[in-house]
Each structure stands twice: as C-alpha cells, then as structure tokens.
Amino acid sequence: MKxxxxxxxxxxxxxxxDDLPAVERLADLIRRIDGYPGYLPGSLRDFLVTxxxxxxxxxxxxxxxxxxxxLHRRSWGEVMRVASESMGLEDGQLAVIAxxxxxxxxxxxxxxxxxxxxxxxxAWRLGRRPILDVVANLAAAVRLYERAGWKIxxxxxxxxxxxxxxPEHVFAGPLPGSYRGSA
Length: 183
Ligand SMILES: CC(C)(COP(=O)(O)OP(=O)(O)OC[C@H]1O[C@@H](n2cnc3c(N)ncnc32)[C@H](O)[C@@H]1OP(=O)(O)O)[C@@H](O)C(=O)NCCC(=O)NCCS
Hints:
It is a single chain. This protein is of the alpha+beta class and 183 residues long. The protein has one domain: 3-Layer(aba) Sandwich (Aminopeptidase). The protein is 30% helix and 32% strand. The protein is built from 5 helices and 8 strands. It has an 8-stranded mixed β-sheet, sandwiched between helices. Strand 3 and strand 4 form a beta hairpin. It is globular, with a radius of gyration of 15 Å. Coenzyme A binds next to helix 1, strand 5, helix 4 and helix 5.
C-alpha cells in the first residue's frame, strides 16, 4: 500500500525492514511510559513482527519515526469469538488493528487518528471488517477509538499470568467513508 496520508510534516507510510530497530526503540519507550503492551510473552521484536500481519505502517516526521500501527488476521481467541458472534462473521472476514502507538512528543496532533484510519482503510480494501481490542484502562486509546467512530461490541477479561484480570474492550470499526478524518 502506498502512502495514505500526508500533512506538512507527518507522513504515514508502510513499515520497512530497515525501520524495525527504530520502531523497537519507540515501542520500548512506550512500554516504560504507558505500560503498553501490558503483557509481553516474548521480545518486542516478536510483538512487532508476527506471522499473521496483513500490513504495518509508520508515521514519520522529519525522517524520525514517531508512530506505528499494524493490521493482523487475528487477536486472541476470546476477542475473535466476541467479534465473530456480534458481527455474524467468520474470523477470515475480520482484520485486527494492533500495535498502535505514538511517541509522547508527537501526540495530540492527530497522528494516532491517521495511523488508525490508514489501517482501517487497508482492512476495508482487503474486504475485511476492522476490529480491535484494547485494555480498558488505556484511556487515551479508548477515547481515540470512540471519537473515530468505533463502537464497543463486547468486553472480555484477559487473565494476566501475574493473576490480574484485565477488562478489554472489543471494538468494531466504522463503515468505509464514514470514519472521522478519513482520507
Ligand atoms: C492512543 C495514542 C496512540 C493516541 O495517539 P495521538 O497521536 O495522541 O492521537 P490523536 O492526536 O489522534 O488524538 C489524541 C488527542 O489529541 C487531540 N488532537 C488531535 N489533533 C489535534 C490537534 N491538531 N491539536 C490539538 N489536539 C489535537 C484529539 O482530539 C485527542 O484528544 P482527546 O485525547 O482529548 O480525545 C497514544 O496516546 C499512545 O501511543 N498511547 C500509548 C499506547 C496505547 O495505548 N496504544 C493503544 C493500544 S490498543
């Protein structure tokens, strides 16, 4: 997929293999600052590069990567079950927006929304309905999804290996052309 959004200083473009060290550093920072991801069974590289990816994009500002998003075939079982039942679709008709994060210095400028919209547009282009899951206490992310026209279709409980039970919202994306700020 070619570049999907451009503003004077920020470009959303597909992630390249050469971007991975920078994206990994960014993910490490976000993990320490925001606690996302809250559960990391493997390495950050494994978190970013997965077999089920349909695409991944970065947001670049003056040649510095400031944000990232990916589109996956699936999330964990309970999320797919809730989405599939609620939407009346098979897993193969869905695509999961994942690995969304923006460096703190570049937040509040619409970068997160445009990364979200880029991955959403690609899901629709592939003929899949976009969904995502988010730990309920990631308040900025939940606000972003709601403002972007996404709807909560269920809440599941993620059992963290440390014993915590973390509520996770499952969201369904808006219809093509109706999402806020769509390019
Ligand atoms: C969630 C996250 C990606 C949002 O990124 P972002 O780039 O700040 O997102 P946006 O700029 O599109 O929207 C954020 C806010 O900025 C505001 N905003 C957007 N453009 C703006 C502008 N030009 N001027 C002022 N404010 C603006 C939005 O209205 C929104 O306000 P709100 O938080 O009060 O609702 C970011 O906070 C993050 O990386 N969080 C940690 C990781 C995380 O939780 N990821 C989600 C995992 S599921």
